[in-house]
Amino acid sequence: MSDLDRQIEQLKRCEPLKESEVKALCLKAMEILVEESNVQRVDAPVTIFAKST
Questions:
Q1: Would you call 10 exposed, middle or buried from its count of C-beta atoms within 10 A (0-12, 13-18, 19+)?
Q2: Mean pLDDT across the stretch 28-44?
Q3: pTM exceeds 0.70 for this model
Q4: What pLDDT, in 10s, does the model give residues 3-17?
Q5: How far apart are CA 21 and CA 10, in angstroms?
Q6: What's the angle, vertex CA 48, arms to CA 37 and CA 33, rounded to 5?
Q7: CA 8, 37, 48, 50 torsion-angle sign
Q8: What is d(CA 35, CA 50) in angstroms, rounded to the nearest whole number?
Q9: Which of 19, 25, 27, 41 is 20 to 30 A removed from 35 (C-alpha atoms)?
Q10: What Å distances lie between residue 44 and 3, 10, 18, 29, 51, CA to CA?
């Protein structure tokens, strides 16, 4: 079982992850998102407006 699979199972049991594991997951997610062509980087602060129909 991979670390990711173990972490998913741990979260399904409502058991918290270690802070270091959460940080590692966030860093990995950022690495993946940076490579996506449809994700645009924007600097904070950002205001988002939505038009309701």
A1: middle
A2: 90
A3: no
A4: 989 999 999 999 999
A5: 12
A6: 25
A7: negative
A8: 26
A9: 19
A10: 32, 33, 28, 19, 21
